């Protein structure tokens, strides 16, 4: 039995065509092509690049939920390609030995099979990693490990990372580590048992929401990146609508994306090519998790928003769903 069309495939065929776009511009899937250098993001990127190129061993970026840590991480990885050897662990919530194995896999260590690796003690894993890192250093290659969602790392695994940070020659660190996580990471690192690791972090940066005045430019940037041609209208969002999105989202990129995506769906459902404040408020009424600045909308307004979405879905999929 052939599966029916998915929302994403229908969106690509109708939603994006309507606005002359190659892809959905406000997907919440992290895509480094959409990296937007607002003050906080650019400051964090600058710190990471300068510190890594200066040979610093342990760095940290803490950011609020939905503020673009993963996009920043992937953008940094793209910049570092060809400049150094990189390893990326997106989900470090694992046992210490598994974390070391994940790093070995990222570094393509071929000295043992994945089955054999489970027979290695932590001492054996660290030795295998050290040998690999020494070879890279002897060839003049720096090795950088980026760990995303670092607030999820266990205390034992954080200790393994500290041991890795001890690996060095007389002149340089064999491994440079970057931790990216939510504010809970700072809470974890403040525990007395992790004070040795905390002291090794030489540079850190905070990644917060965008300033409200940057949100209109952010919307244009995303539309420009997804545009099908130079003729694509990147001024879809009226300035008042963009300002309302900034107010309701608090400048959190993920919330901006969710609201903007819903607004484009609503405008498409009405065969409109501009997004107004009315669209933003209807979209906000259907979006949980907005900041305290959002006032609860009247029930009739929420009902209109649901009706608009229902009409849109019916137009895309038909009455059979």
Secondary structure layout:
Blueprint lengths: L6 H12 L20 H15 L4 E6 L5 H12 L4 E5 L6 H11 L7 H4 L4 H17 L4 E5 L7 H11 L10 E6 L2 H6 L5 H6 L2 E5 L7 H12 L12 H11 L3 H17 L7 H9 L13 H19 L4
Parallel strand pairs: 1-4, 1-5, 2-3, 3-4
Helix pairs in contact: 4-6, 4-7, 11-12, 11-13, 12-13, 12-14, 13-14
User: What general form does the structure show?
Assistant: elongated
* The CATH architecture of the largest domain: 3-Layer(aba) Sandwich
What is the total number of structural domains? Answer: 2
Q: What is the CATH level 1 assignment of the largest domain?
A: Alpha Beta
Query: Averaged pLDDT, please?
Result: 86
> In DSSP terms, counting alpha (H) and pi (I) runs of 4 or more, how many helices?
14
CATH superfamily of the largest domain: P-loop containing nucleotide triphosphate hydrolases
The unreliable regions are 1-11, 292-300
The order of strands across the largest sheet is 2-3-4-1-5
The largest β sheet comes out as: 5 strands, parallel
CATH fold-level assignment of the largest domain: Rossmann fold
Class per helix and strand makeup: alpha/beta
Portion in strands: 5-15%
Helical percentage: 40-55%
Brief summary of the model shown:
The chain is of the alpha/beta class and 321 residues long.
Structure commentary:
There is one protein chain. The chain is an alpha/beta fold. The chain has 14 helices and five strands. The chain has two domains: 13-28 and 212-317, no CATH class; 39-207, P-loop containing nucleotide triphosphate hydrolases (Rossmann fold, 3-Layer(aba) Sandwich). The protein has helices at 7-18, 39-53, 69-80, 96-106, 114-117, 122-138, 155-165, 184-189, 195-200, 215-226, 239-249, 253-269, 277-285, 299-317; strands spanning 58-63, 85-89, 143-147, 176-181, 203-207. It has a five-stranded parallel β-sheet, sandwiched between helices. The longest helix has 19 residues, at 299-317. The two termini are 17 Å apart. The relative contact order is 0.15. Mean pLDDT is 86; it is low at 1-11 and 292-300.
């Amino acid at each position: 039995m052939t599966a029916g069309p998915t929302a994403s495939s229908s969106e690509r065929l109708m939603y994006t065509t309507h606005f002359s776009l190659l892809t959905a511009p406000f997907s919440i899937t992290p895509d480094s092509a959409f990296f937007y250098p607002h003050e906080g993001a650019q400051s964090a990127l600058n710190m990471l690049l300068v510190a890594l190129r200066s040979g610093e061993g342990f760095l940290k970026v803490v950011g609020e939920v939905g503020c673009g840590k993963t996009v920043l991480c992937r953008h940094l990885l793209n910049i570092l390609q060809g400049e150094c050897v990189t390893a990326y662990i997106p989900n470090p919530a694992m046992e210490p030995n598994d974390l070391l194995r994940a790093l070995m896999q990222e570094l393509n260590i071929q000295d043992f099979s994945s089955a054999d690796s489970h027979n290695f003690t932590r001492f054996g894993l660290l030795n295998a990693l050290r040998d690999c890192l020494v070879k890279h250093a002897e060839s003049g290659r720096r090795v950088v490990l980026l760990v995303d969602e670092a607030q999820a790392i266990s205390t034992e695994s954080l200790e393994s990372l500290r041991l890795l940070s001890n690996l060095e020659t007389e002149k340089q660190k064999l491994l440079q580590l970057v931790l990216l996580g939510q504010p809970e990471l700072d809470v974890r690192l403040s525990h007395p048992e992790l004070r040795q690791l905390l002291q090794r972090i030489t540079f850190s940066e905070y990644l917060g929401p965008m300033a409200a005045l940057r949100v209109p430019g952010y919307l244009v940037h995303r539309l420009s990146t997804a545009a099908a041609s130079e003729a694509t209208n990147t001024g879809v969002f009226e300035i008042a609508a963009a300002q309302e999105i900034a107010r309701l989202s608090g400048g959190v990129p993920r919330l901006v994306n969710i609201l903007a995506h819903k607004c484009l769906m609503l405008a498409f459902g009405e065969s409109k090519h501009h997004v107004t404040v009315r669209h933003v408020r209807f979209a906000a009424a259907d979006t949980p998790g907005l900041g305290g600045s959002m006032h609860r909308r009247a029930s009739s307004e929420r009902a209109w928003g649901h009706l608009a979405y229902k009409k849109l879905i019916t137009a895309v999929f038909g009455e059979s769903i």
